[in-house]
User: Which sequence fits this backbone?
């Protein structure tokens, strides 16, 4: 049985996973991999509208995935913890592995149907 503290950690993990479950947010995070960017730079990098980028950044700020810094009139955003990038990379590796396994299965089924 989990302790209340362990359950709280799982709830927080779930919230981060929900935040990362949006492809537009993942695209924004991908654009932030190389360092700080303004909303304008993120719009150019992702092709998303300013309102959309701002809305997703607000959600990620709330979940403490990104932070902002003012530089004059510009607000710059960056990823709080670079391990977020590692987590995303691991998930991509899992997806690539799954796709590879699916491809192998399709080849096996195709070969057995020709026999």
Assistant:
């Amino acid at each position: 049985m989990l302790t209340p503290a362990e359950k709280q950690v799982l709830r927080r993990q779930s919230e981060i996973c929900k935040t990362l479950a949006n492809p537009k947010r993942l695209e924004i995070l991908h654009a932030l991999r190389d360092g700080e960017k303004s909303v304008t730079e993120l719009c150019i990098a992702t092709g998303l509208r300013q309102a959309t980028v701002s809305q997703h950044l607000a959600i990620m700020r709330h979940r403490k995935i990104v932070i902002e810094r003012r530089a004059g009139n510009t607000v710059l955003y960056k990823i709080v913890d670079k391990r977020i990038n590692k987590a995303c990379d691991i998930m991509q590796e899992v997806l690539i592995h799954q796709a590879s396994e699916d491809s192998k299965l399709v080849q096996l089924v195709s070969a057995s149907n020709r026999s």
Remarks:
- Residues 2 and 13 are 15 Å apart (CA to CA).
